[in-house]
């Protein structure tokens, strides 16, 4: 039998000892609930002590439940619109703030980022006041003669959520993009300028490739955050919005949980997890594609 | 032996953990009884009675205020934890919106103690109790047992700007909804949401319509629902519209009333306190009246919302918990205190006059006993775990009807509503059959 000296055993054990507290907490508060929710998703429940096996019944019911698909459609629509609006806006603002000609940049940094500091509930409360039918936004629009009913019109629920969400989180994206822009070698920009490249060409061929990894990160984070959208529309509309037009997947999960059927709510949670996993995989694929030779995103001469 | 940085960090982590545990150690003294209430107003109303309970029995009472959604979450966690939980309250307040989740369990396994025997014994002992909200008991029944004592009735009145009505030549009360629809064409604006079915539900309850019957069957095809939706949609949209949406932010509807964006609204009694607090400038300009009816058999009022107080099944001593409940919520002094500090009509009260005999100066042309009279006539209402789904389905049909009226495509609105309701009913029944917990 092989014997290890005490010192060697201690050295081998030490890292595990350090990992132990985290693992214990992870196992108790994350892994166990995760596994338990998976088991629960195959049951009809009325409290944990009262569970009836339904097999895949919760999943089958979910897939033919119109309100769930309404929540999926709302969430997907929001996610797409959010990425289309937020990223170009953040890129534009970051480019402006990166310019030395803009004065008071710190103030703008703070102004853009401040909404992110206060969080979605606060932003939703303020946005609720702004978007009221007789709120500030409509007062500003009064000279146009257009008075949208932002919070009561089912067609305007997602645009209103989108505007509030962009207001909330654009500052977050700006900070990341600005940091990425500032890490671009100034010599590259100077060389391009000497070569006669205009502002647009410099942006397209130097800035954009330089911030690409951050953009991919922001797409991934933005997508996952959008799929988990809950507090903002819930507080803004005090529920699922006019005719369920602000119902998101997480809100649907929340309502299922509050109806007392934890099994069904768990099934919704696992479907959401599946969607998020798909999104992460898709983002990874996009990143690989962007990095590949086929991609025209990078001009060949700038590739390392 | 040398001590490496790893051991120092480990030591620091242990010290930090122990310090955290020590800091979190509660210094509050142990209480004999604990109550969870849903608002600070409720907590304040109970404080005095809790002190007299201590003087009487020597038992201390902790009153914890927890917002309704948080309380539901806590209660669910408590029931999940089972009897072992150390923080079981003796009494818990619950709102209608939360009750369905706890009424899912089969009758024999309800998380709340059956209160029928206790309440019957109390009512037998107190024959002078004015059972204002006797129909209210149905709201808190599950599996054939009473799971909570109703604290309120929440009768609904039509509250309107009397000055506006006078200037437009509209005389109240209006006996039927048709009369109101015609009279309000003069320019009086009634709050009728186009994106929520709350007011529609009040109109349906007034007619005695429940969306889900006592046997958990969808009742969306009830013959009274389609005409009511069609009537509502024509009031809320199209050329003959008299309805407007109120602002959505909490309390903002009061500003709408002040600034004459709405002139009238259906108001459960708890909104009267909100009106008085947020719009003192309306004093002397408002009036309250019973609701118009659809037919002579309808109630002149409706009901919306509600709170119960119940005893969790895992309570340490249900009998003692009931004694506390009776003292805090049903004793003469407690009932009188609640009646005198709020416009909310208690579900049970005593014959002793609890309200001022003079008219409320905030309102004009209003009998002081209106709310109590209406409370005696509130329609029956039941709670089902599937209420939220049923209201969502009703909301969907209402939306279709309003769109049809808005587009001028309402020649066959009533039969269209019937068709939409049939489809919604099938879907609701599907939900009920799927979600019902079987014995």
Which features does this protein show?
heterodimer; A: 304 residues; mainly alpha; two-stranded antiparallel ribbon; 12 helices; B: 439 residues; alpha/beta; D-Maltodextrin-Binding Protein, domain 2; 2 domains; five-stranded mixed sheet; 16 helices; 15 strands; globular
Query: How are the strands of the biggest sheet of chain B laid out side by side?
Result: 2-1-3-13-7
Shape of chain B: globular
Number of beta-strand segments of chain A:
2
Q: Report the uncertain regions of chain B.
A: none
Q: Strand count, sense and closure of the main sheet of chain B? A: 5 strands, mixed
Helix content of chain B: 40-55%
Descriptive overview:
The complex is a heterodimer of chains A (304) and B (439). Chain A is mainly α and 304 residues long. Chain A is 71% helix and 2% strand. Chain A is built from 12 helices and 2 strands. A two-stranded antiparallel sheet of chain A has the order 1-2. In chain A, a hairpin with a 5-residue loop joins strand 1 and strand 2. In chain A, helix 4 packs across helix 7. The longest helix of chain A is centred in the first third of the chain and has 35 residues. Chain A is globular. Chain B folds into 2 domains: 201 residues, Periplasmic binding protein-like II (D-Maltodextrin-Binding Protein, domain 2, 3-Layer(aba) Sandwich), CATH 3.40.190.10; 202 residues, Periplasmic binding protein-like II (D-Maltodextrin-Binding Protein, domain 2), CATH 3.40.190.10. Chain B is built from 16 helices and 15 strands. In chain B, strand 5 and strand 6 form a beta hairpin. The longest helix of chain B has 23 residues. Chain B starts with a helix and ends with a helix. At the A-B interface, helix 1 of A face helix 1, helix 3, helix 4, helix 10 and helix 15 of B.
